[in-house]
Structure formats: C-alpha cells, structure tokens
Amino acid sequence: MRVVIVGTGIAGLIAAHRASARHEVVLVTKAELAESSTRYAQGGIAAALFPDDSPAAHVADTLAAGAGLCDPHAVEVLCTEGPERVRDLIALGVAFDTDASGALARGHEAAHSARRVLHAGGDATGLAIEVALLRAVKAIAVEVHEHAFLRDLVVEPGPDGPRVTGVDLLGPDGAALRIAADAVVLATGGAGQLYAHTTNPAVTTGDGIAAAWRAGAVLSDLEFFQFHPTALAVPGNHLISEAVRGDGAVLRDEAGRRFMLDVHPDAELAPRDVVARGIARAMAGQGGRPVLLDATSLGAEYLARRFPGIDAVVRAAGFDWGTVPVPVTPAAHYWMGGIRTDEDGRTSVEGLYAIGEAARTGVHGANRLASNSLLESLVFAWRAADALDAPWREPGIADASVPEESAAASGAPPFTRTALRELMWERAGLERDAEGLHAAAATLAAWSAETPVPGGASGPTDASGPADAREPTDAREPTDASGHEDANLLALARLLVGAALRREESRGAHYRSDFPDTSADAAHSQSWRIR
Fold this sequence. Notes:
Blueprint: E1 2-6, H1 10-19, E2 24-28, E3 45-46, H2 55-65, H3 72-91, E4 117-118, H4 125-138, E5 143-145, E6 149-158, E7 161-170, E8 176-180, E9 183-186, H5 207-214, E10 219-220, E11 225-232, H6 242-246, E12 250-252, H7 272-284, E13 291-294, H8 300-306, H9 308-316, E14 326-335, E15 338-340, E16 352-354, E17 359-360, H10 373-387, H11 417-427, H12 434-450, H13 481-502, E18 526-527
Parallel strand pairs: 1-2, 1-9, 2-5, 9-16, 15-17
Antiparallel strand pairs: 3-4, 6-7, 7-8, 10-15, 10-18, 11-14, 12-13, 13-14
Helix pairs in contact: 1-4, 1-10, 2-3, 3-10, 5-13, 8-9, 11-12, 12-13
C-alpha cells in the first residue's frame, strides 16, 4: 500500500515510522522536515507511568477537563495505551529528564490529580521528541517532499461513495505535483494563525483541515479553541509554559494583587480556560495592559536550570524574571475541534485519515487537559498506522445539516490576513457574544465573496455553517501557497464563527457572555460540505 502522510510533527513522524514497516510511505511537509508545532511544545507529555498513579485517574482528570464533551472510549484508549507508547518513545531515543536517583522526573500541571507530566530538556520536550523521531525516520526508507504545499486532496468516485486517492501539491518552485495514494494521512496541525495573538508557528494555517472539509469530511467542535493563559507580552510568539505555574509561579495584576485567588479555588492551576479568562478580565480592568507572572520565588538559578529555553527568551526580551515579574497575555494555543475521526484515525471519507491536532478524536472535549496533546498524537498516530492494514470500515460519523445563508457586510474593510486575525481575536476569541459573532460572520462572508479559493469553488455560503458545493462557482484559484493559506484560514474562520453562533451556552473553552451558563445538552457541533 502507498501511504501519503502530510505533516512532520510527532503525529506524522510516528505514523511514518510505524507504517514504513509494512507500507510504502511518502512524507510531505510544507516547510523543512523539522518545522512543526511539536518542536515548540514546552509543557511535556502526560502518562500514568508511576506506582501512585493509574490510567483510571488520568481518564477521570481528562473527562473532567473536557466539560462533558469527551468521548469516554477515546479517553480510555488514550490513557491506557499512553504509558506503553511513551516507553516506545524512550526506545526511539527520547531522553526524558530524570531525578537524582536516575528515575524519570515528573511535573505537575493544572487539573491533573497526580504528578504525571514528563519533560525533556526542562522546557524543550517537543524539540527532544522531534529530534529523536526525525533521526528514526531518516534511518528508514521514506520518500520525503519538503517545501511542498497541500493544495488539495484528490477525490474520486468509489463503489461506496467518494474516496481520497492522493494529494495535489505545490512544489518548492510553485509547480503542481500530484501524488497518488492508497491512503492519505493528514497530520497537518491546527490553525493558530487564525488569531492575532498565538503561540503557534507560522505554518499553522489549517491546510489539512480545510482540504478535508473541501473533500466532504465531517468537521466537529470547531468552536472550541484553547487559549493559553501565559504568552510573553512582547512581539513574537513566546509561550511561557504552564509548568512554570505548576512549579509555583503566580499571577498578579499591575497593583501586585494575586487575582486568581478570587476566580477559582485552584487559582493559577485552574483549568486553562478559567485562567485565560481570569487574565483577560484582569487586563480589561487595567485598560488592557498585561498582567504579571511572578516567578521570583523560584529564583534565577532554578529558572535557568528548569526552564532554559524560556529563560533565554525572557532574558532576551529584557526581563530578569528571577527578580521581577514579567508581563503576560493569553494567546491562541490549541484547537480541540477538527476533522472528526474514530479511534483509528478514520474520517468520514474513505481513504482519508487524520491524526494530531488536525483530528477531532474526542479525547479533549471542550477543553484540553494540559500535556495531553503530545500523548494524543502519539497514541492515535500509532493506531492509525496499524489500521492501514485493515479493511476500511465506516467510522459511524453522522452527516450534519447545511444551514441557510447569512448576509455579507456592506462596506467591509479590505481582506488581509492581519485583518482576519484581528477580527477573530476581537469577535471570536476568549469571550464571545451574538452581536460580535454576527458582525464577524458578515465581514467574513464579504471577504469570502472576493477571495480566490482552491479548486475554483466559492467559500462557505453561510457564516454559520458549510456550503453546498453544487451551487454555481466562479473559477478563481489562489496563485501561490500564501494565497491558499489565506483561503484556508478564511474558510475555517467562517466555520468556527458559525459553530460558535450555534452553541448558545458556555462550555469549556467556548465562553458566550450572553449565554454564560452551561446547557444540560452536551451535543457536538458538526460541519460538512456536500460534494
């Protein structure tokens, strides 16, 4: 079987390594092989590896954080198979940190009931994993295409409906390239570039999720975008890991008051959505200025040893965080929604698999538990690679209805990616309401009517849901990778805003100030496109 895997973070690399033993693997990445969100992951990987912990406890913590929208079976898979998969990472050469006795060191992060988070290089866990997996993949026979942009999926009629049979790429020179495949695995990450403030690298433009939607795959839970509470409030994307607060740092307003004590019993270690909104409200109360992360109790020597990467970034920005608090702000971090899959990575379109942040496996629900993302990528990429040998089976994903069209804004400002990111931050960020979401939907509809889109098809005709592709299209097409990225971001923005409008409650990372209560109905949202 010929398998094309798009994306080279932990999910894509694990799938490539695992699948290569039985299949011909083609690995595709839009940048260089080593560039992905994985290499920037600071917090660590959670797994119940220790005698005073258990998969059952990890399951309970994950379900609690997910606010009623986790798939219990998927969570069970994650937490029971996770320890063995972490041991597989160690066998592949990932050197996790150890304590003075030589045993694995473990950290504590928000909403975990036990110290179960492993780190490597202090705050360089993702980088250590990426380096080890790249070394392992380079040692096997895998065809690699770097600087190759996923323009679209190749979809052909099959006996049981549409089937994905390959990928259309833009090569490094901009030339079109089609690669045929028996199966395509999307490991393309999330879409952090939807927002003006993000911890994600520039490559996270939702290309795989948008391509899957155009192919007819069901997307789910797009309204749930997690905002990390603490990004350094200076230009650039500089995350300050939750592990810093796990080790004892606290949050203060500009008057020095530890305001999270009034927000949640767990204060700085409350679930991420609670901490992020607490910071946002504190900032609003002081004219939008950043709050302060106070790690001075830990001392400069400890901070440099425990968090060497963060220490270097903070000091390069001009702060001696061992002696003075540093300014922080929330930033878009992780998308819980994405391409809906079963426990083996299968999507609703035959031949198409999704893993990593691009997938909506069901383990995160409405709010991801800290340090579960690397584990999710590891566990479900492994399962997807093994499932390639099995006959395709329908994953049991129901189709969603297609809402009616909504009106575009008159006099909308010209479309730019910067304008899109600012609009999403202001109208569909940490706090949302109907007025802001409707305004965003109208502006996005106006931009969509004027923006070239892949395949010549018009974008979603409705800001609150997907489009019917049988409607007339114009033949416009983006001319380069950047244009394709813009189109992908615009389409996903419209789908996210539509999902946020339809969810008239507050749950997990989705907060509606006009619907602050949580509904008794814990239904999932879905979006799909009729081919």
